[in-house]
Amino acid sequence: MLNSKRNKNSKLENIHAANVAEDHIQSFANSSSAVYVSVNLLTKVRFLALKKQAGNRHKLKGGN
């Protein structure tokens, strides 16, 4: 009976460890996606700001 309890506990520990690992993988994937989106958005905002500056030559000193 003692051996049976050990096997059952061992199985439960393995299941728990697998669930924890899966949660960590999902969290990592979600945070990676969030970082990608925020960097991508920041790049777009910077590009639009540069595009507006390039289109407003009359506001720059020395422009025609």
What does this protein structure show overall?
With 64 residues, the chain is mostly helical. It has one domain. Helix content is 84%, strand content 0%. It contains 1 helix and no strands. It has one helix at residues 2-55.
Order of helices and strands: H
Tally of individual helices: 1
CA radius of gyration is 28 Å
Mean pLDDT: 68
Shape: rod-shaped
Overall helicity: over 70%
Distance between the amino and carboxyl termini = 92 Å
In terms of topology, how is this protein built?
Layout: H1 2-55
Outline of the structure:
With 64 residues, this protein is mainly α. The protein contains 1 helix and no strands.
Features:
64 residues, mainly alpha
